[in-house]
TrEMBL record:
Keywords carried by this UniProt record: Pyridoxal phosphate
Modified residues annotated as N6-(pyridoxal phosphate)lysine in this record: K70
Sequence ranges assigned to domain Orn/DAP/Arg decarboxylase 2 C-terminal in this UniProt record: 40-389
Listed GO MF terms: diaminopimelate decarboxylase activity
Classification via Pfam families: Orn_Arg_deC_N (PF02784), Orn_DAP_Arg_deC (PF00278)
Single Gene Ontology BP annotation: lysine biosynthetic process via diaminopimelate
Similarity field: Belongs to the Orn/Lys/Arg decarboxylase class-II family.
Needed co-factor(s): pyridoxal 5'-phosphate
Source organism phylogeny: Bacteria, Pseudomonadati, Pseudomonadota, Betaproteobacteria, Burkholderiales
Organism: Pseudoduganella aquatica
Name the record gives this protein: Pyridoxal-dependent decarboxylase, exosortase A system-associated
Alphabetized InterPro entries for the sequence: Ala_racemase/Decarboxylase_C, DCO2ase_PEP1, De-COase2_C, De-COase2_CS, De-COase2_N, Orn/DAP/Arg_de-COase, PLP-binding_barrel
Length: 421
């Protein structure tokens, strides 16, 4: 008996009809014709809408949801999200412009990130959005810019916590970090803040990303609230905002399961009453990127060549790591594992085989699927990478090897499609 191989978590966003994936209410083959080229990314409105609804079902009603738009900054996606969530978090001046083009109120837009330029800060101050300050130096620059513009800056302090989010795909707090002000230095910073012409809103405490373990997130929430309450004693005025980060992960690789959202929600319901008593004016915010959009997107490329090398089948496609670095395994993964991949126009297929899906780049890193079981495919067939709605096109080295770019489309009605592979 061979060992049972770990499987990808079931994908439920996109139905299959007559063995063809349906995306945006039409067969993938027709969608490819309507897009007019491969490769392309397609993002589904209904999947995003359903995800936000699911969060709202499980989280306490007081929790506000922000979209961290660096996960997917396509303007149409950001506009769609703006109608669903309570705020947008940006991480650059460019993202700020996209966020300001939506209907989101400026005070519900926040800007985090180290190394904000004076030009970025001036745009943010003039717009009246909330700046999550990453250092004492940045605070002084913001105050000077506010004075020059005659506008009182809206600010929060990003805190580098004195703990880590355990089992996190990417740790973004704890220990020495370029992000935020070390928790132990925050009281001194707040004393100085109180003497500057700055409008203080609260704290932003983000400890990590891509976490699938409810217990780890629950523990981080508990520690985050405790830290916030300790620091609030030093604030120049009562907190109006407490951003407790996010870090909710999605299953990418074989053997990964879904985050137990109900457990995270229950824990928050248990913790919130004490927090609300201590910080009665504070809006409690959770900011999420990939959890909101990651499962709503696919990346589609077309098979150009099918070749067999020493017994191994290679499907050479027109897409690859230049559009989708993370599916190739080169965006922060330690050990390369396969994203869920199917042949979209023949999901089950008549015959199945083990094949690798590669791109056109002259590097062995350009690998979208490494020896996966797929329907037998050849030129013209469409290779689909799921879980591609976040950290896809804009997180990839598009200029590498000077191949054509990928197109992005936002598809579908606002009605959940249902179904699954
Ligand atoms: C990147 C980032 C996020 C989003 O992380 P996800 O893993 O996509 O949810 C949220 N907050 C901050 C401060 C970030 O830098």
């Amino acid at each position: 008996m061979s060992a049972v191989r770990p499987q990808h978590a079931p994908l439920v966003q996109f139905p299959v009809v007559d063995d063809c994936l349906q995306i945006g209410g039409m067969p993938l083959t027709r969608l490819a014709a309507r897009v007019g080229q491969t490769p392309f990314y397609a993002y589904d409105r209904a999947a995003m809408t359903a995800r936000v609804a699911e969060l709202r079902r499980h989280l306490p009603p007081e929790i506000e949801l922000h979209y961290a738009m660096k996960a997917n900054p396509m303007p149409a996606v950001v506009q769609h999200m703006a109608g669903l969530v309570d705020g947008i978090d940006v991480a650059s001046g460019g993202e700020l412009r996209v966020a300001l083009d939506t209907t989101m109120a400026p005070l519900n837009i926040s800007f985090a990130g180290p190394g904000k330029s004076d030009a970025d800060l001036a745009c943010a101050v003039a717009a009246g959005i909330v700046l999550n300050m990453e250092s004492a130096g940045e605070m002084e620059r913001i105050a000077a810019i506010g004075e020059r513009l005659g506008v009182r800056p809206q600010v929060a302090v990003r805190v580098n916590p004195d703990f880590e989010l355990k089992s996190s795909g990417m740790k973004m707090g704890g220990g020495p970090k370029q992000f935020g002000v070390d928790a132990e230095q925050v009281p001194e910073l707040l004393a100085r803040l109180g003497r500057l012409a700055l409008d203080f809103h609260g704290f932003h405490i983000f400890s990590g990303s891509q976490n699938l373990k409810a217990e780890a997130i629950q523990e981080a929430h508990e520690k985050t609230f405790a830290l916030a309450l300790r620091l609030a004693a030093h604030a120049p005025r009562p907190l109006r905002m407490l951003n407790i980060g996010g870090g909710f992960g999605i299953p990418y690789f074989p053997g990964e399961g879904r985050l137990d959202l109900a457990a995270v929600g229950e824990n928050l319901k248990r913790l919130l009453p004490d927090v609300k008593r201590a910080l009665p004016e504070a809006h409690i915010v959770i900011e999420l990127g990939r959890y909101l959009v990651g499962e709503a997107g696919v990346y589609v490329s077309k098979v150009i060549e099918r070749k067999v090398s020493r017994g191994q089948v290679y499907l050479v496609t027109d897409g690859g790591l230049h559009h989708h670095l993370s599916a190739s395994g080169n965006f922060g993964q330690v050990i390369r594992k396969n994203y869920p991949v199917v042949i979209g126009n023949r999901v089950r297929g008549g015959e199945r085989e083990t094949a690798s899906v590669v791109g056109p780049l002259c590097t062995p890193l350009d690998l979208l699927a490494d020896q996966m079981e797929l329907a037998q495919a050849g030129p013209g067939d469409l290779a689909v990478v799921f879980q591609s709605g976040a950290y896809g096109l804009t997180a990839s080295p598009g200029a590498f090897l000077s191949h054509p770019g990928a197109v992005e489309v936002l598809v579908g009605s606002d009605e959940p499609a249902g179904g699954g592979v």
